[in-house]
Write a structure and sequence with these properties.
Layout: H1 4-7, E1 10-12, H2 16-35, E2 44-50, H3 51-56, H4 62-70, H5 80-93, E3 95-98, E4 102-105, H6 108-111, E5 112-114, E6 125-132, E7 138-148, E8 151-154, H7 159-164, H8 176-186, H9 190-201, H10 204-227, H11 242-247, H12 259-278, E9 282-284, H13 294-305, H14 310-331, H15 336-339, H16 345-359, H17 364-376, H18 394-414, H19 423-436, H20 449-452
Parallel strand pairs: 2-5
Antiparallel strand pairs: 1-9, 2-6, 3-4, 6-7, 7-8
Length: 456
């Protein structure tokens, strides 16, 4: 199983699958070269991008991410100022410090190949690394898959085995029905059960520190987004709006605002995060970068509008949200390139709805119902970013995903947890809908808004 450490990871924008994943794959490839003692033999490197990484890689900064990963940088620790210097040096001087150890010639225009023709091997987000020696002989060649949310694996590795790696957990579950049954058998609520699983894999202190670090990073990201103005990079000339949207409400205390203003603020908070993401800022995958604004916005709603939640309730929110995220990754996908935006905004809304229901004292059955309602009303959502940028319609979609999550939690808490459609059934439906969806609607920018709106 995976848990809160994998579902909520601190990284950089604009995309978990197209930025964070490729950077991690590149850094892993170079680290393996170093471990095998082969890095000194490498005289040249070629990176080939397939599928969605090729079609929207430039807009998603995949080329930039690959350069940073080859230079030994990792998403969680890369320094933005150092990153600019590394990318600039490759572009201007044609040099790259491979694994931060030794310079090799590297010209991005020549050595990063956007392959629009070859069917992507293994996953819609695939990339191949080929390292050669001075005589042109292959030192190492690997294909990596970026499977959404920053998760990566080598092509050919067993995905199920990868998910099962690590210490055994006391309450394992592979689907929602089993999750509820495990909780009933143990006499636990879902937040406590999810936390116990995480504490079996890391120390209690590590788990608590990570949760608090994630909460701080999410709230800090909202604040940074609310403070920033100007145009977002990429050429669409999209202006940041979160600051002005929130500013219209003035400095009135959140609890004193009229009811409709709560949703206005929630939308502004979600957009603030994804404007930061679009600018390449530091965000938390939740479960992806493209959907990174939904969970933080609903968390802040819980903090600012629902005082009964308290700090412990916010932590419970994240533990439950992580468990729901695991179910979708395990049984469907969190990759827009694989199942469309239902796998990003839809999953984020399901996670946030379940988390909010848990934080407000919902039963396990109400929590599961909240997640189901949220996803049910995102089914079929396409991923069609204009110009391959995580801006239109992505930023506004986070606002609507957050508002839908609050509505889903409210509906679930109004009932007793009994409902007609189960979470497992809606997850299967989401997976099947994604499989039926044409590839042009799955993060390739070859359909939908991406072709019907002029991007200049």
């Amino acid at each position: 199983m995976i848990g809160i450490f994998e579902i909520f990871e601190i990284g950089i924008g604009p995309s978990s699958s197209h930025t964070v994943g490729p950077m991690r794959a590149a850094a892993s490839f170079v680290a393996a070269l170093s471990e095998r003692g082969e890095i000194a033999r490498v005289a040249s490197l070629t990176v080939t991008l397939y599928g969605s990484l090729a079609f929207t890689g430039k807009g998603h900064a995949t080329d930039r991410a690959v350069i940073l990963g080859l230079a030994g940088e990792w998403p969680a620790t890369v320094d933005p100022d150092r990153a600019e210097a590394i990318v600039h040096r490759a572009g201007e001087d044609g040099l790259l410090a491979l694994g931060a150890t030794r310079d090799i010639p590297f010209h991005p225009d020549r050595d990063i190949v956007f392959d629009y023709e070859t069917p992507p091997p293994g996953h819609p987000n695939a990339l191949k690394f080929t390292a050669r020696d001075a005589e042109g002989r292959v030192v190492a060649e690997e294909i990596w898959l970026s499977t959404g949310g920053g998760f990566v694996r080598r092509h050919g590795d067993d995905a199920a085995a990868s998910d099962a790696a690590g210490p055994a957990v006391p309450h394992p579950f592979d689907d929602a029905d089993e999750m509820l049954e495990r909780a009933r058998a143990a006499g636990l609520d879902l937040a406590t059960m999810s936390r116990a699983n995480d504490c079996a894999r890391r120390s209690e202190a590590e788990v608590e520190a990570h949760v608090d670090r994630v909460l701080a990073a999410m709230f800090d990201c909202i604040d940074r987004g609310l403070a920033a103005e100007g145009e977002l990079p990429g050429g669409l000339k999209v202006k940041r709006r979160a600051r002005s949207l929130a500013g219209r409400l003035g400095n009135t205390a959140a609890t004193a605002l009229p009811p409709h203003s709560a949703l206005d603020l929630v939308g502004a908070w979600a957009m603030a995060v994804n404007e930061e993401n679009a600018a390449g800022g530091r965000v938390v995958t939740a479960p992806t970068n493209g959907a990174a604004g939904v969970v933080p916005a609903v968390l802040r709603y819980a903090r600012d509008f629902r005082p009964e939640v308290g700090p412990d309730g916010l932590r419970r929110f994240l533990h439950v949200a992580a468990a729901i995220g695991w179910l979708f990754k395990r049984n469907a996908s969190i990759s827009g390139a694989e199942v469309g935006c239902q796998g990003e905004i839809g999953v984020a809304a399901a996670m946030a709805a379940a988390g909010l229901a848990a934080a407000l004292g919902g039963t396990n059955e109400q929590v599961e119902n909240a997640a189901e309602i949220a996803m049910e009303h995102h089914l079929g959502m396409t991923c069609d970013p204009i110009a391959g940028l995580v801006q239109i319609p992505c930023i506004e979609r986070n606002a609507f995903g957050a508002i839908k999550a609050i509505a889903a939690a409210t509906l679930a808490l109004a009932g007793d947890g009994t409902h007609f459609v189960s979470l497992d059934e809606v997850i299967v439906t989401m997976r099947e809908t994604g499989a039926d969806m044409q590839s042009k609607y799955k993060e390739t920018s070859r359909g939908g808004l991406a072709v019907n709106v002029v991007d200049c």
